[in-house]
Amino acid sequence: MSRDVVAKDLVVALARGLKMPGLVRAFEAAARQAREEHWAYEEYLHEVLAAEQTSRRDSAIRQRLSEAHFPELKTLDTFDFNATEGVTAVQIAELARCDWIARAENIILAGPIGTGKTHLAIALGVEAARLRRRVLFQRAADLVRVLVEARDERELGRLHRRMQYIDLLIIDELGFVPFDRTGGELLFNLIASRYEKRSVIITTNLPFGDWVRVFAGDEKLTTALLDRLAHHATVLTTKGRSYRMRRRNTEDKTTEAKSDRTPASLPKPARRA
């Protein structure tokens, strides 16, 4: 066995023992380049350590994205700002810096169904995860169900403590399903526990005046909830036609156009002599 092979195996074993997979993947190619370009030892060391640092950062981001439980990954570069009124690329780009999370501020995305609220909420969550913030996405009805189950199993206190480690809680589709009084109170208590400590994004298809219907007609609870949410919040109201309806109309027109090009009848086969 050659000396080079032994050295390679030793480096791999040491790097794996130190949990440095990025270095394992990069050190051979970097060594070849170092020999060809006559790097100093310090330059080579910097290169392989930088590769390890990048590997750890990418791994942490993948972990954050996995833990967020996004229903699907949506990014800002795929959002059609031309088709949605009420929000601008400049506004969202500023929010994508995630400085508001450090200040424990909130975002409320309100507007009709299909105007991109969930897309924006997920995309901002993805940006936060890329900055290695802890993010959790939950639909409002699912979150209330989890809270009720935790209460019934006497695990509510533990769940609240776990939630305090979440830098950004995204509550999607508030208003689609009304809650009973118990569910409304549990959701209120969770949001109140995050007030001025951790950030929340809420998407809703209801104007604020209609939120009381979601919380079993309890005006005091609804007012107290809105007071806490909106105190340090950016409120964005999306407008326009539903993305899904626009897409369906486009597909229907495409189908109609293809149909118009199809002959009404096929020529009859020639008769045999």
Give a count of the beta strands, DSSP E runs of length 2 or more: 5
DSSP helix count?
12
Order of helices and strands: HHHHHEHEHHEHEHHEH
What is the rounded Rg?
A: 27 Å
Measured between the Cα atoms of the first and last residue, the distance is 84 Å
Shape: elongated
Task: Indicate the percent of residues in helices.
Answer: 55-70%
**β content, as a range?**
5-15%
Supply the helix-strand structural class: alpha/beta
**What's the main sheet like?**
5 strands, parallel
Output mean pLDDT.
Answer: 89
Order of adjacent strands in the largest pleated sheet: 2-3-4-1-5
| Model regions low in confidence, pLDDT < 50 over at least 5 residues | none
Give descriptors for this structure.
single chain, 273 residues, alpha/beta, 5-stranded parallel beta sheet, 10% strand
Compact summary:
With 273 residues, the chain is of the alpha/beta class.
Describe the 3D structure.
The structure is a single chain. By secondary structure, the protein is of the alpha/beta class. It is built from twelve helices and five strands. It has helices at residues 3-17, 21-37, 41-68, 89-95, 99-102, 117-130, 140-152, 156-163, 181-194, 211-214, 219-231, 243-261; strands at residues 106-110, 135-139, 168-174, 199-204, 233-237. It has a five-stranded parallel β-sheet. Helix 9 (181-194) links the parallel strand 3 (168-174) and strand 4 (199-204). Helix 1 (3-17) runs antiparallel to helix 2, helix 7 (140-152) crosses helix 9 and helix 9 (181-194) packs parallel to helix 11 (219-231). The longest helix is centred in the N-terminal third of the chain and has 28 residues, at 41-68. It is elongated, with a radius of gyration of 27 Å. The termini are far apart. The relative contact order is 0.12. The mean pLDDT is 89.
